Amino acid sequence: MVMKATIYARYSSDKQSETSLDDQLRVCRTRADREGATVEFERCDAAISGSTAVGSRPAGNAMLADALAGRFDLLLVEGLDRLARDQVEQEQIVRRLEHRGIRIIGVSDGYDSRHSGRKIMRGVRGLINDLYLDDLRSKTHRGQAGQVERGYIAGGKSYGYDIVKADGGSTYQINENQARWVVWIFEQYAAGNSVQRIAHELNNQGVPSPRDSTWAVSAIYGSPVKGSGILNNSMYVGQYVWNRSQWIKDPDTGRRQRTERPREEWQTASLPELRIIDDELWRRVRERIDAGRDEHGRKRQVRPATTLFGGMMLCPRCGGAVVAINAERYGCAAAKDRGPSVCKGFSILRDLVEKRLISIIRAELLSPVAAAEFEKAFEEMLKENTGSTEDVAQTTKRIAQLTAEIGRVVDAITMIGVSEALAEKLKSLENDRSSLQRRLALKAASEAARNPNVTSIFNEILMNLTAALRENPLMARKILGDIFGSIQLELREDNQVWAKMATAQLLKQVAGPSISVVAGAGFEPTTFGL
């Protein structure tokens, strides 16, 4: 039987080009001819690092999908480093493929999964590739540090500047239009205006943010400790700071995460020609920012305000979160943070909202009458989801039939090998059987959850909520979130505010985690005015 082959090629952006893919494909095609294999797929990833997880690359992910579907039985790569340079991931990928009977050949490095010494070669190659990545990171970092010492920049774009490529490296050049707004932001803050008001005005005037979007408080204020945000960017007084952070790969997710470096590792270069803000304006801004902070620039510990419904309610205008905008009122977070050009917003008294919502919860949603209605609807829902005894018998019989069919397909694969049709058939049968098995599991869980004492459960929730409201606001907030999730607010005639509270979350409290049902089935949201 003719082997079906897939070629996987990849080049990273460092000192390589698209011609590298052509070269890799050429040597792999030649090897496929030698092996008497037919090349079914050619999967190519361009300008993607070998440290990027295979499943996170477009072509790499497609290749893995082909492998799981049994669409090829020979994988050709120029070398194992084209699959992955990370030693652990390379080992995992190779094992997954070889477990499925796929032969792997590294044309240039000599790897062949049929050779008895493949594990030793794979281990050595994996270690070499891993060390290459470490060495590359070290050399890149060292080169960037040297560029900073020579007066060039080694980071990304900074608001107020354009990046200009030069023979020796990259430099900043002041962007006069953006620089004008940098000065304006500093002047407004030094004059006592709030960051929210500054963001509102920028958005109102249609000034693009650093990310070409709307301005938010975080873009302006950032973090004084990390040196982020417009108001903390020392570049505006001619001091370029590099090496504040680093990117580290999370071994669980394969994603890169930014971590901050200690201040003693920061590297500073004086670039007075790039100054935008004078020392006096910088000093005034720093005095205001540093007020209330310790010697390390961190805010002195202040007990955070606790609100019962902040973040749970949704704005009636934009659908964003409603939070405490001051000590007395709830309002739209987007309107507070970004201004009326993003959301016109609204506000409502905290005391009014909290008393009204708690009153409704106690008197209507957790009342004995509500418990009786909920219990009736819950029982009806269980009947719809579990089906009759006859349905269960038919489902069990069908599962047995599917299991027998799966066995016959597996026997066929054992005798004649995997074909695309057999692989698809096997996958379809297994999916059908899994679906029916889940249905039976739901039936069993539903039987276990049948006839719960809803009144008792409601009384317990109400008792816990009452105690928490009196003694532990944080716990009360958690209980409310568990019961209702989000609360949608609506604006009606004469600007009256109405709240819509879905009771579907109560299913989890009544049925527990053993039963999975369509959220909200049979349970209408409760709507009332505030």
From TrEMBL:
InterPro entries: DNA_bind_recomb_sf (IPR038109), DNA_bind_recombinase_dom (IPR011109), Resolv_N (IPR006119), Resolvase-like_N_sf (IPR036162), SSR_resolvase (IPR050639)
Recombinase domain location: 158-295
CDD domains associated with the record: Ser_Recombinase
Key word Coiled coil present: yes
Molecular function via GO: DNA binding; DNA strand exchange activity
Keyword vocabulary terms for this entry: Coiled coil
Domain Resolvase/invertase-type recombinase catalytic: 4-151
SUPFAM superfamilies reported in the protein's UniProt record: Resolvase-like (SSF53041)
Protein's UniProt keywords contain Coiled coil: yes
Coiled-coil region list: 419-446
Alphabetized PANTHER family for the sequence: DNA RECOMBINASE-RELATED, DNA-INVERTASE FROM LAMBDOID PROPHAGE
Name listed for the protein in its UniProt record: Recombinase family protein
Organism of derivation: Herbaspirillum huttiense subsp. nephrolepidis
Origin organism lineage: Bacteria, Pseudomonadati, Pseudomonadota, Betaproteobacteria, Burkholderiales
